[in-house]
Design brief:
The chain is an all-alpha fold and 225 residues long. It is built from eleven helices and no strands. The longest helix is centred in the last third of the chain and has 27 residues.
């Protein structure tokens, strides 16, 4: 059986068809699936079907590679575009997009946090929120409160989601705790709480209520002592 032809290699042993973007995309996939500890230059080279020296040629050492992945994550989280007809709708759309990005890339987001770049990562979303609260007629400290409250809501919600997903099986569970036979006052409530929550729906309900309440309260005249 004849040996399969090896990929053509260019300067310094790099595979001719290999690009920096391909290296970064493959590295990002490995981190998303298994976490940063699973990303080694040898494993990355095996995934790409090339030599380790080729990886170094394209992205430098492992720290340089991680820095590039962090920079890419920061850029990606900055690609948030509001949607909707009103400031409130657009603020909610920013919150949804931010939650989706944080959930899709937990390991990469953790790497950003470890390198002290969390605020920089959130800055584009914060700027989008500032634009919308200005469109709603808010300025100064009241506008800042809306921006920060929405950010805290998104991050806190994602943390609770992840903790619930990783938690051990609960005994007793919701179904037992909310036995409809003991819920004489509101059996429909008991049935709803006994079932599993719908995180997407719950996020929409909570963030809409938060935004509507914040914009309504912030638009009123300031309380006087």
């Amino acid at each position: 059986m004849s040996e399969a032809p090896r990929p053509a290699r260019g300067a310094r042993g790099a595979r001719a068809s290999l690009t920096r973007d391909e290296v970064l995309d493959t590295a990002a996939t490995l981190v998303k699936q298994h976490g940063p500890d699973a990303l080694t230059m040898r494993k990355l080279a095996a995934e790409l079907g090339t030599a380790v020296t080729s990886i170094y040629w394209h992205v430098g050492n492992r720290e340089s590679l991680l820095d590039a992945l962090v920079a890419g994550t920061v850029r990606e989280l900055g690609e948030i575009r509001p949607h909707g007809h009103t400031p409130a709708q657009r603020i909610v759309s920013v919150a949804r997009a931010l939650r989706r990005r944080l959930r899709d890339h937990p390991h990469l987001v953790a790497m950003v946090h470890e390198r002290g770049l969390t605020e920089r990562m959130f800055q584009p979303a914060a700027q989008a929120l500032v634009h919308e609260v200005h469109a709603a007629g808010l300025r100064g400290a009241r506008a800042a409160d809306v921006v920060r409250a929405v950010q805290f809501q998104v991050v806190g919600f994602v943390l609770v989601e992840r903790n619930r997903e990783r938690a051990p099986v609960q005994r007793p569970g919701d179904e037992e705790l909310w036995d409809t036979t003991t819920a004489d006052q509101d059996p429909a409530l008991a049935r709803a709480l006994a079932g599993p929550p719908d995180p997407d729906r719950l996020f929409d309900v909570s963030v809409r209520a938060l935004v509507d309440g914040l914009l309504d309260t912030a638009s009123r005249p300031a309380d006087r002592p």
